[in-house]
Specification:
Blueprint (H helix, E strand, L loop, with lengths): L3 E7 L3 H6 L4 E4 L15 E2 L9 H13 L13 H12 L6 H12 L3 E6 L5 H6 L7 E7 L1 H7 L4 E5 L1 E3 L5 E2 H6 L1 H9 L1 E3 L7 E6 L5 E4 L4 E8 L5 H14 L2 E7 L7 E5 L5
Parallel strand pairs: 3-8, 7-9, 12-13
Antiparallel strand pairs: 1-5, 2-11, 4-10, 5-12, 6-10, 13-14
Helix pairs in contact: 2-3, 3-4
């Protein structure tokens, strides 16, 4: 049974090809993203806009986080240290400030790893930007959202990107009282200029800058060489495909239909 097709575009780099043999999934460090606003939305204390008394707010915050058994419950939007900071701020606001609570949340979110995918193979900008002007390649994955969510509930999650014309702000109260919504906003919001990507990202709550065994719910389906990939790299790609037991194809640029490409079986004569 086929899942949803997701695509990962890769540059013309032999290391990116040989890496696939291990059938692992790489999770990047978000601090190395090329968009400085990605994974770095502003978090502020905007609670004064609500009209709620600060003392009542702190009391509610303490009662909420004090009821969480961090050892037994999975609250990925909180870290143990963030919970500790919230409690300290709620009880002793002079010794633990809102700014320190916010800073701890941001530090915690930056420990997550991220892998990015696109929904469309026939993406001219993606082939040009991410796949070295068609000299690179693309990996097609079969993604099964329900299986992925069920099998990886403790350490991985899927987030489709929301594209926005304005940079959204996250309030401290959102982090405390609706943390999962605030988390999604923080890690899955990008500028409208990136909307051509149609991005879906997988987030690793425990590791970044490393590869892990291919999680259940996602698997490689096909390798697609760019239309200008060199013969040596095509041979390497075919070898990896044979090793993994998956199809290997190549893109062909169609001049009769501008900006629309098609893929076909990779010829053994290359």
């Amino acid at each position: 049974m086929n899942g949803i097709s997701l695509y990962r575009f890769e540059p013309a780099d032999i290391r990116r090809i040989t890496f696939l043999k291990d059938n692992k999934l790489w999770f990047s460090d978000p601090e190395r993203f090329n968009d400085p606003l990605d994974f770095d939305l502003p978090i502020k204390d905007l609670t004064d806009r609500s009209g709620i008394d600060e003392k009542a707010l702190r009391k509610a915050a303490f009662e909420l986080v004090d009821s969480i058994d961090f050892e037994k419950e999975s609250h990925r939007a909180y870290s143990a240290k963030a919970l500790k900071f919230i409690k300290e701020w709620a009880k002793h606001p002079k010794s633990r400030t809102q700014e320190q609570v916010i800073a701890e949340f941001k530090l915690y979110f930056k420990t997550f790893g991220v892998q990015c995918f696109m929904k469309n193979l026939d993406n001219t900008l993606a082939w040009s930007h991410y796949a070295s002007q068609h000299q690179g390649f693309c990996i097609e994955y079969n993604f099964y959202p329900m299986c992925f969510a069920r099998e990886n509930v403790k350490n991985l999650a899927q987030f489709p990107i929301t594209y926005s014309t304005a940079i959204p702000e996250i309030c401290l109260s959102e982090l405390i009282f609706s943390p999962h919504q605030a988390l999604k906003k923080f890690i899955a919001t990008k500028s409208i200029e990136w909307s051509y990507e149609q991005e879906v990202r997988l987030v690793n709550y425990e590791q970044k800058g490393c590869a892990i065994e291919m999680p259940r719910g996602i698997k490689m389906k096909r390798l697609i060489a760019g239309a200008k990939m060199c013969p040596a790299y095509k041979a390497n790609l075919r070898e990896v495909g044979e090793h993994l037991g998956i199809e290997v194809c190549e893109m062909e640029i169609s001049h009769s239909s501008p900006y629309k490409n098609k893929w076909l079986a990779l010829k053994n004569s290359d």
